[in-house]
Amino acid sequence: NIKETRLLHIAIPSINAEEIESYRRPQNQGVFRTLHLGLSIPKDSAKCRIEIGGRKQYWAEGKLFIFDDTYTHCVENDTDEIRGILFIQFERPVSGIGRIAQKIFLMGVRYSAFVKDTKAGIERWNARRQGRSA
Question: What family does this chain come from, according to its entry (predicted)?
Answer without folding.
Answer: Belongs to the aspartyl/asparaginyl beta-hydroxylase family.
